[in-house]
Amino acid sequence: MTFSPELEAKFAKMLTIYPAGRQRSALIPMLMFAQDEVGAVTPEVMNELATRLGITPLQVDEVIGYYSMLHKKPQGKFHVQVCTNISCLLVGGEELYHHASKTLGIGHKQTTADGVFSLEEVECMGACSWAPAIQINYDFHHKVTPDKLDQLLKSIGKVQ
Amino acid sequence: MVYNEPHPLEIKVLTKRFLLENSASIDTYLATDGYKAFLKAREMTPEAIIGEVKLSSLRGRGGAGFPTGMKWSFVPKNSPKPTYIVVNADESEPATCKDRLLIENDPHQLIEGMLIAALATNAHKGYIYIRGEYRYLIDIMDKAIAEAYAKGWLGKNIQGTGFDFDCYTHTGAGAYECGEESALLESLEGKRGIPRIRPPFPAVAGAWQCPTVLNNVETFSAVPAIIRDGGQKFADYGTPKNGGTRLLCISGHVNKPGVYEVPLGFNMLRAIDEFGGGMRGGKKLKAVVPGGSSCPMLKADECDLPMDYDSLAKAKSMLGSGGMVIMDEDTDMVKVALRIMKFYAHESCGWCIPCREGTTWLKKLLTRFDEGRGQSTDINLINEVAKNMLGRTFCPLGDAAALPTISIVEKFREEFEAKLAVQSGSYDDANRFVQIA
Amino acid sequence: MADPVNLLIDGKAVQAPAGTLVIDAAKMVGIEIPAFCYYEGYSLQAACRMCLVEIEKTPKLQASCTIPVGEGMVVRTDSPLVAQARKSMLELLLTNHPLDCPVCDKGGECELQDMVFRYGAGESRYTEAKLHVDEKQWSPVVFYDGPRCILCYRCVRVCNEGMGVGALGIVNRGVISEIAPNDGDHLNCDECGACIDICPVGALTSGTYRYQTRPWEMNHVGTICTHCSNGCKTTLGVRNDKIIRGNNRDRSGINGEFLCIKGRYAFDFTENPERLQSPLLRIDGELQPVSWSRALMAVAQKFNEVKASGGNFGVIGSNRTTNEENYYLQKFARQGLGTDNIDHHRSGDLTTLLDAISGKTTALATVADLYTAKATLIVGADLSEQQPLLAFQIRANFRHHAAHTYTVTNGPVRERKYAVAGLIVKPGEELGAVESLRDQLAKESELVIVFGDAIKGGDVRKLVAFGESLGIPVKYVCLVDYSNSRGAVDMGLIPGLLPGYNAGTAQGMATHEMLAAADLDVLWVIGANPLKSASLAGHSAFVVVQEMFLTETAQRADVVFPAASAYEKDGTVTNVTGEVQRLKRAVKTMGTKPDLEIFSLLAKEMGLDLGPTKPEAIFDEIRKTVRGYNIPLPIIATGGAAQTSPVNGRVPLESRPELIQSARDTLFTSGSLGRYSKMLNSVMERQAGLYESGVNTP
């Protein structure tokens, strides 16, 4: 399979930045960027990257299972990640998660029927001093209240 | 950008450009002493650079607090293999959010720190391992790297000095364990983030089995100031053996949570009052996580102490990563213990038995308490299981899970007792049979 | 070697070579440090934490499997703290390990059971629910029970490092980590079962053995695998006269723990329903069961008639029958029947090699040499497919000693993945390619050249000349196909060549000549199937066959004797590298007889006296009369391998390269035997992809 020209260019460069014979080092970045483009690490992506990096599909699978951001099934177009780790917990992270769950009508690692939203209770995302925090896809949102979350989801819904 | 107001008591060494317009651009950087330290270091011998870093008493800001100069001095000289610089930007320790700001607001400071480390260890390639969640920082960092190449601060023959250095970003994909340096290297090599057997340490056999300088973002970011203004000046910000400033990430029940650059040795209670703006809602302080969730908790009456490596160690805790969590009198410590353990159980790589099984067992035990189904013998059991992990796991993650748990059980035992299923002891025996059935 | 290091373990003074791990140093003075993940010969894990010990001046307990000994080190493995650590580790392990020992195959020989018994707590404090996932079947052979798995990663390492296959990996993270196969939901591998044997618990179980028995109900019979020529010891687990499993966990053979699928599982041909269990006699054109006496009488009568009339006999022996049987058979043919028309399926040009190295006493490599030699050159053979133990040895030599491997083959082979140089050439171009490696090979300090049937006749001499011209010590291995192919040559199952490579007085016919002889009166075939691919010209020939199955040849027979398999008889066999080992009878199949017994009954029926008829007595005669076989009896008697001494003299036999052709069996075939192994036939899924994949790449 091939990826978009931009991604192919990125991959081509990536394969040059690690020492000779160590091209496998590009695996995790390639998986992340490929997942962003394809929507999931599909078997095709796995096999393709394995071939490109000279490793077995099992070796790719081992890596996918290890990293929590890599997933074999597609998530919602907007992946809502609510942190409930300690700093967020103390200032309403759990309540925020439950609110999101209720509002979207889905639970942890579930996707709405229309495929627009998915929800995940995540570990510390590094926004502790501006808690409670969420990430929607890669975008951070700080000091999120249930109201603010509603607005956010609504504005995304409109863009939809 | 910054996400909280600065504070007048801050000593802005690493964060001095944070409030400047376009602080991340190379023009801003060059206009504010940027890359001067590199040029200065280029005139110094590697030994002199390392000497200056040693003089600064800079210690690893990732959490372990190992003296940076010493770490660099372990890199073998005249190794036939190349040496690599690797930046640990896998900031994942709960309550820590400082490296993010350092990259977001001053990426060139990091590059310059890497360059100086490269001069000190004769390295010509560097990799910045950024946690997957910080995708936007990859864009910022890549842009800064491109600028540096364009202006001749990276690449071949940097500024005509004859020194070559290439720098790349590398994204993680969601794994706390990869913050452990040897696990990070495995991840950098495209593998599962399982820590390595040490020795050999990364300085000798790190990335691709080559000598490697591996430090936290904040550690590298402190280096330009140390070289530019002298190690002594940096050391003087702090207390003896605990030199410099550090970025303190205050979170929890305070009025003004935020990230502040604070001299080492600053009193903890005063920090809560001054930087944190005092307890939220005027509540009383109950406990403090001094430096990321791996550190043993301090009770309120243990918090009147200077925040430096040695004082925290004396208080049987750790300065850690700078992630300070303030908890008020209403905090449910059982819930806190559970949430911390849920995290470690989720992040345990599963490699070794005590961490893999211990974190899961503790999570189940704490869940029962949290749900009001604790049994009186379980309080000691939690403590014992945690102690059975302590010091016996393959990497420090086991300790990181055990230490806060032990401290909470021992310091807040009454909160566990309050959550027992049945206050009398008779329930326990009956329940055992129920469980078996 | 560096100076030895002195240390104290539990107060005992230990002297160990520098670099020795504390866990091994302890073993040297009889102190056992328990461990799951540590496994000699495979990479270090430090994962199970069972081997924690106290080391003076070190604050924490240390994993003794990764700490090298240090001068003056003081180690305690018997302290209360260490005992407590072991107890706690086992308690933690048992939190999610199901206590289904009563139905677990491993029960009784489970390392976790043993450790808990010895080091564990009497009662568990764990009262939470255990994690559960369902058992998975990964292949006809391999089942995986995730909850039982303690994640010691032995299976992953033995597959990746030991076998060079890399069919097993670790997926997921944390407590839900588990072992996973390489092809989605199933394995695509050698099916060697090494992962199952090395599993300390019952996480990996074998399709052939599971739920069949308790280990203590079996007798364990150590014998030699009857399939390929490598001569692996396989310890057969026998219950009620039935073979239930094969393994070699006691590492008693030349193969250590190694076995391929054939050695471990392909014993099931012995109980194939098609097994012949009664002599057959052609009556009215049909093969019909008759009594042994009737069949023997019919054959003896015919043999005596033909002998008396000066008719033509043809005798084709087996690659799998014992040395004693082969020796007796050639005696039977030459002395009893007066014919030199005796041959067998020749799969490698051993005789030319022995002649070419005449005068050298150190030019034949052993299986052990392949693990220690500094360099190995493989010519024209796919060792991983055809000679799995030799391949394993070479691979281990590379892993442990960084030995150099060179390959010259007709296609990709697994050894090429780590070879210093791996040339792929067209058939017939091997010698040229070998020549192109001259400069590299000459720089090695020693070399073993392993060659298959691509090199025969004059080419063998050229190869030896090449080896001798390198100016370094060179040893050779001439590859042959089956468990006693080598012994068949040694015992003179070749026309014109008597046992021990002595010249015969006559020059009889080779196999194809016997088959083509229109005037052949008797064809006597023992454990071979020449008519599978050739026809018999002598339409009136009386054909006698000793076989386990009604093969193509047996179907043409006038009399068929049901023969016992190698697992049903005693005797000795000689492997590809000339090492003699003992076969020990494990089971008996009703109605069959060992070939030797059939020979002797026939001799008796014919009124012949051919000397001793018991295997031990014949072996005694072999030791006295066959060159190279004067080997120490105790080694053989105790189940060891005794290297035959070099023939070291000219072999009076003309090279006949056209007669030499390997059957090119793969891991999953084994001549006609393989056809009757249900197990082998059930696993034949595998792609060449394993050869070129990135397993073992950094």
Structure description:
Chain A has 160 residues and is of the alpha+beta class. Helix content of chain A is 46%, strand content 12%. Chain A has helices at residues 5-14, 27-38, 43-53, 57-66, 86-90, 93-104, 146-159, and strands at residues 78-83, 110-111, 117-122, 134-136, 139-141. In chain A, strands 2-3-1-4-5 form a 5-stranded mixed sheet, with helices on one face. Chain B has 437 residues and is of the alpha/beta class. Chain B contains 18 helices and 11 strands. In chain B, strand 5 and strand 6 form a beta hairpin. In chain B, helix 2 crosses helix 9. The model of chain B is unreliable at 429-437 (pLDDT under 50). Chain C is of the alpha/beta class and 698 residues long. In chain C, helix 2 crosses helix 3 (111-119), helix 8 (323-337) runs parallel beside helix 19 and helix 8 crosses helix 20. Chain C is globular and about 90 Å long. The relative contact order of chain C is 0.12. The model of chain C is unreliable at 687-698 (pLDDT under 50). The interface between B and C is large, with 34 and 37 residues.
SSE topology sketch:
The complex is a heterotrimer of chains A (160), B (437) and C (698).
Chain A: H1 5-14, H2 27-38, H3 43-53, H4 57-66, E1 78-83, H5 86-90, H6 93-104, E2 110-111, E3 117-122, E4 134-136, E5 139-141, H7 146-159
Parallel strand pairs in A: 1-3
Antiparallel strand pairs in A: 1-4, 2-3, 4-5
Helix pairs in contact in A: 2-3, 3-4
Chain B: H1 26-31, H2 36-42, H3 46-55, H4 68-73, E1 84-89, H5 99-105, H6 107-121, E2 125-130, H7 135-150, E3 166-171, H8 181-188, E4 212-216, H9 217-229, H10 231-237, E5 245-252, E6 258-263, E7 266-267, H11 268-274, E8 285-289, E9 298-299, E10 306-307, H12 309-314, E11 323-328, H13 333-347, H14 353-370, H15 376-389, H16 397-411, H17 413-417, H18 426-436
Parallel strand pairs in B: 1-2, 1-4, 2-3, 5-11
Antiparallel strand pairs in B: 5-6, 7-10, 8-9, 8-11
Chain C: E1 4-9, E2 12-17, H1 22-28, E3 52-55, E4 62-63, E5 73-76, H2 80-96, H3 111-119, E6 136-137, E7 142-144, H4 154-162, E8 168-171, E9 178-181, H5 194-198, E10 204-206, E11 219-224, E12 233-239, E13 242-247, H6 261-265, E14 280-283, E15 286-289, H7 292-308, E16 313-316, H8 323-337, E17 342-343, H9 350-356, H10 369-372, E18 375-379, H11 383-386, H12 388-401, E19 404-409, E20 421-424, H13 430-436, H14 438-442, E21 447-451, H15 458-469, E22 474-478, H16 485-490, E23 497-498, E24 502-503, H17 511-516, E25 522-526, E26 542-547, H18 552-555, E27 559-562, E28 571-574, E29 579-583, H19 595-606, H20 615-625, H21 633-637, E30 642-643, H22 671-675, H23 678-682, H24 689-692
Parallel strand pairs in C: 1-5, 16-17, 16-25, 18-19, 18-21, 19-20, 21-22, 25-26, 26-27
Antiparallel strand pairs in C: 1-2, 3-4, 3-5, 6-7, 7-10, 8-9, 11-12, 12-13, 14-15, 14-27, 23-24, 28-29, 29-30
